[in-house]
Structure formats: C-alpha cells, structure tokens
Amino acid sequence: MAILGIDYGAKKIGLAVSDEQQKLALPLEVLINLSQAEILNKIKEISQKYNIDQIVVGVPVSFSAGKKETLLREVDLQNQQMKEVLAFVSWLKEKGDWPVEVEDERLSTKMANGLRRDLIKKGPDDAVAAMLILQSYLDKKIKN
Question: Which candidate in 31, 34, 82, 130 could, as Cys together with 7 as Cys, close a disulfide (CB 3.0–4.6 Å)?
Fold first, then answer.
C-alpha cells in the first residue's frame, strides 16, 4: 500500500506518492483546483492506480516562538491559509475512504523551488513540495 501526499492550494494542488514500502516519496502531478468534484475524482483515480490507503496533507504551521506541544497551535488556527487547508482535510475525510493525517509543511515550497532548480530541473514545484511533505511524514513514521 502507498500513501498520497498533498500540498493544498486554492489554485493548485501538488501531489506526491510513496513507494509500496512507504519509505520513499516521489512527485506525481499538480491538479488545477477548479472544482471539488474534479479533485475528488482525480484523487480516487490516483488512489486506485497507486493502491493508496492513506493521505497526508501539509499544513502551514507558523514559526511563532513558544512551546509546541501540538502541531496545530491557536496562532496557526487563526491563519486564513490554515483554515482553508483544514477545511480541505475535513472535506477529504468526509468524502473519501482514506484516513487523512496532517504534516508540517514549513518551507516545503521554498525547498521545492531549490530542489527543482538544482536537481530536478523541471517539474512543478507544487508536486515537489508535496513530495517533501510526504517524505517528512515517512521519515517520522520509519523512525517511530
């Protein structure tokens, strides 16, 4: 079984997929966010093709100082982008057949731009950002 990584955006949604052993994430594609129905159909199609049994969505956690007992802090929950991502996560949980988890996506787009420029040389940065989010999740899972 594989895991689907998602870098959600109001205009574009980056996708990445893990290998069957859930050790390595690879960029997959970028969806244009035109309608929920289209997004759900595409995610279902990808889920069947890649044998997806879980989804991980990146959330925009702030760099605010202070203790971090939990991934989602009050300061983050006030952020409009965070609200949109969490609404997407709730929608996925309601409409889909997969468990959905969240992963810190701080700096994923910035790193994706650098990776794309330095290593990959082509490909959409949203899919690379989704790959980085998913790889972070996989690395934590392997460690535990």
Answer: 130
In terms of Cα–Cα distance, which of 87, 77, 82, 95 is closest to 38?
Answer: 95
Query: Stretch 69-80: mean pLDDT, rounded?
Result: 56
Distance CA 15, CA 133 (A): 10
Across 24-43, b (16+ Cβ under 10 Å) vs e yields: ebbbbbbbeeeeeeebeeeb
Q: Domain ranges for the chain, please list them.
A: 2-58+72-143
93-133 tens-digit pLDDT? 999 889 999 998 765 555 545 554 444 444 457 898 899 99
Our separate counts of H helices and E strands in the chain read 5, 5
Q: CA-CA distances (angstroms) from residue 3 to 7, 22, 81, 128?
A: 13, 7, 24, 15
Residue found under tokens 């998602």: 6
Q: Which CATH superfamily is domain 2-58+72-143 in?
A: YqgF/RNase H-like domain (3.30.420.140)
User: What is the average pLDDT score of the chain?
Assistant: 82
Tell me if 135 sits within 8 A of 39, measured CB to CB. no
**DSSP-derived secondary structure letter, 45:** H
